[in-house]
Design brief:
InterPro entries: SPW. The protein is mainly α. About 75% of the residues lie in helices and about 0% in strands.
Length: about 120
């Protein structure tokens, strides 16, 4: 039974977070919402932050980095409604998808770093 997240799995989580962060960062140009101020700036800032935190976690893992990415991921999910760009479909979906991926990976990394066993049932 897997009890803790090995460093190889944690590295894979961080690499996926780097790709997701970069994806969010380039999404305003890729999906054509760079003119939407709140959506574009949020994508650039949150995408860059996710990427930088994941890169830092590759070099020295600290649980605080995962908590930061969890918060950033959750922010990315709710930002379209709080910042008022939910009507910009491409921006909304880019934020929601990346946010869910980043938040799920960060939550999984936090969960497994505390040696919580998987269900034995």
């Amino acid at each position: 039974m897997l009890k803790s997240l090995s460093s190889n799995n944690r590295t894979a989580f961080d690499i996926v977070n780097i790709v997701a962060g970069l994806g969010l960062f380039i999404s305003p140009w890729l999906f054509g919402f760079a003119a939407e101020t709140y959506a574009a700036w949020n994508a650039w800032i949150v995408g860059a932050a996710i990427t930088l935190i994941a890169v830092a976690a590759l070099y020295a893992f600290y649980e605080a980095e995962e908590w930061c990415n969890l918060v950033l991921g959750l922010w990315a999910v709710i930002a379209p409604w709080l910042l008022g760009f939910s009507a910009v479909t491409a921006a909304m979906w880019a934020h929601v998808i990346v946010g869910l991926v980043v938040a799920a990976l960060a939550a999984g990394s936090i969960w497994f770093s505390h040696n919580h066993p998987l269900s034995a049932a």
